[in-house]
Amino acid sequence: MLIESLTTEGITPETSRPEHVVEGDPVHTTWNLDDDRGLFCGIWQSTPGAWRATYAEWEYIHVHHGHAVLEGDDGTRTAIGPGDSLVLRPGWSGIWRVSETLRKDYVILLR
Fold first, then answer.
1. What pTM was computed for the model?
2. Is 6 inside any structural domain?
3. CB count, 10 Å around CB of 18?
4. Mind listing the pLDDT tens digit for each residue in 80-95?
5. pLDDT tens by residue, 28-77
6. Can you list the alpha helix ranges (DSSP code H) found in 1-111?
7. Is 31 a member of any domain?
8. CATH number for the domain including 101?
9. Could you list the residue range(s) of the whole structural domain that residue 46 is in?
10. Number of domains the chain is built from
11. Which of 35, 26, 27, 34 is nearest to 6 (CA)?
């Protein structure tokens, strides 16, 4: 399809747990709509918890529901919630701290 709605319907979800958990027992669920030569897009959800992450990729995020704080190793703190959109660029590292189950759309570009 050349135009497709971003929805969880008809997509088999993948469930995982982050490798570097620092708090709680977060569960990640991903509905990956597209995977094309380093470009990925879909819907991602995490239950509450915190984990360390390092980005080698570029990611656009739009939050549908839930809340989190991204605590950068550089001391920055970015709170995100419903309606927020942001870009995480290669080189960002820190802690994702989800306080309320968060669901987001994502577009990831591997470089």
1. 0.92
2. no
3. 17
4. 999 999 999 999 999 9
5. 999 999 888 889 999 999 999 999 999 999 999 999 999 999 999 999 99
6. none
7. yes
8. 2.60.120.10
9. 21-109
10. 1
11. 34
